[in-house]
Amino acid sequence: xxxxxxxxxxxxxxxxxxxxxxxxxxxxxxxxxxxxxxxxxxxxxxxxxxxxxxxxxxxxxxxxxxxxxxxxxxxxxxxxxxxxxxxxxxxxxxxxxxxxxxxxxxxxxxxxxxxxxxxxxxxxxxxxxxxxxxxxxxxxxxxxxxxxxxxxxxxxxxxxxxxxxxxxxxxxxxxxxxxxxxxxxxxxxxxxxxxxxxxxxxxxxxxxxxxxxxxxxxxxxxxxxxxxxxxxxxxxxxxxxxxxxxxxxxxxxxxxxxxxxxxxxxxxxxxxxxxxxxxxxxxxxxxxxxxxxxxxxxxxxxxxxxxxxxxxxxxxxxxxxxxxxxxxxxxxxxxxxxxxxxxxxxxxxxxxxxxxxxxxxxxxxxxxxxxxxxxxxxxxxxxxxxxxxxxxxxxxxxxxxxxxxxxxxxxxxxxxxxxxxxxxxxxxxxxxxxxxxxxxxxxxxxxxxxxxxxxxxxxxxxxxxxxxxxxxxxxxxxxxxxxxxxxxxxxxxxxxxxxxxxxxxxxxxxxxxxxxxxxxxxxxxxxxxxxxxxxxxxxxxxxxxxxxxxxxxx
Length: 554
Fold this sequence. Notes:
Layout (H helix, E strand, L loop, with lengths): L1 H12 L6 E8 L5 E8 L33 H4 L8 E4 L9 H8 L8 E4 L11 H5 L3 E6 L6 H8 L4 E4 L2 H12 L4 E4 L6 H4 L5 E2 L8 E3 L6 E4 L2 E7 L5 E10 L4 E2 L8 H7 L2 E10 L18 E4 L25 H18 L7 E4 L18 E4 L3 E4 L22 E7 L2 H9 L5 E4 L3 E3 L4 E2 L2 E2 L3 E2 L5 H4 L7 E5 L11 E2 L14 E3 L3 E6 L4 E7 L5 H6 L6 E8 L1
Parallel strand pairs: 3-4, 3-12, 4-5, 5-6, 12-14, 14-15, 16-17, 16-20, 20-25, 21-26, 25-27, 29-30
Antiparallel strand pairs: 1-2, 7-11, 8-9, 10-11, 12-13, 17-18, 18-19, 21-22, 23-24, 27-28, 28-29
Helix pairs in contact: 6-8, 6-10
């Protein structure tokens, strides 16, 4: 499967195209005859016509400017980075991160400080941007997801670093806005949440939440269009962009490999100074113009990438011949069975050919339980449509990951693209169903799933974007009915910061299934799990709900 995807990609990028031309009559706008130029591919050339070698160019080599952008020294290439700069760093997790450039900048820790780092996330441990955190060169982070970076989380919660949490689609949108010359743009993402209200502190005082807020969040202006609320988001302007690309020619045209594009092309378009580390530096004319993801006009300097690729979460397919081992601990076994029950029920909501986005955690179990004959296209917000299962150990590719940073495969017919394209699909309502986990859900369909103030900062990620168009994308929440302390997770009103307001259409737990009337703000119980009573569900639910006249079983 993976080899098939590789062959398809290679077929699109590698073959040379020698062009020949002939002319046929056609009619112009005024109706008179004109000449139509016809392009002939190599297999259509007349007898005796030769190929133009491996070069894709159709003009004489002397017509190409001689100035090249390749630098022999990485240290010299980054010499213009200054303290206080806004540094845009490409990558998603550890996929596509410009580690060669980051390592060179880390060596300047005594002279380059107080950087504002803009990235989807902040590395893992000392890998990626984590290296600059440990050298103390970053004063502020603008990111969508912190994830498991405990060092950064500790710095923020103790008031030692600034953080502006930004929804993932909004982050790439703000970068794109500046690149395209727009001062700001309106988005539905984050409306009626802490993002609009500016209630997430950018910086706490030394000592953390109990000491108070040093820098409050930014309250956003809103406006209604066609009955929907939109948030005005300002553009982000970068001073320097660090980018990693697969193939780069000597004038800066870039080709990215699979999911290693993510934020990179948008960041390069944005910054005053874009520096690319290339895995392969190739001669001018050796890349097909059709294959270019980032034109050279946006690239200022090129260096050779020397840092190895990293994999944040290596995940491989289970050996089909391996014995299926279930947890021996009764509690763990019950928890696994509960999660499978929820995922199995959620799978019944999917129809053949649906475009589906799955959140991190329990939602990723859903494809295992698709009904016979049902196949879906899985979209991953880091730039995949047609995501496949985990790879065999010998087919692992560091450039093919999902939104959870796990190694995956690509299905035949799949497509890869950058983060800006991905969130256009999401916000535009082109995804049929989004299945997400949650910490809390309200009876009106509000969802909270990204942070516990003062205690836990995982980040927003793509969740706010995924729930931003609930009239076109059905949002299903899968979760345990109660928290670990036994408190209900389905409430009259969410107590945690909202991911989205009135966005959830269905809630599936191990006990029951609820349909949500988002406009009326009401819940209806539609199914009970085997062995579960109505009284039990009432006792474990923190709000009132209706009971369907046709109450079924999960």
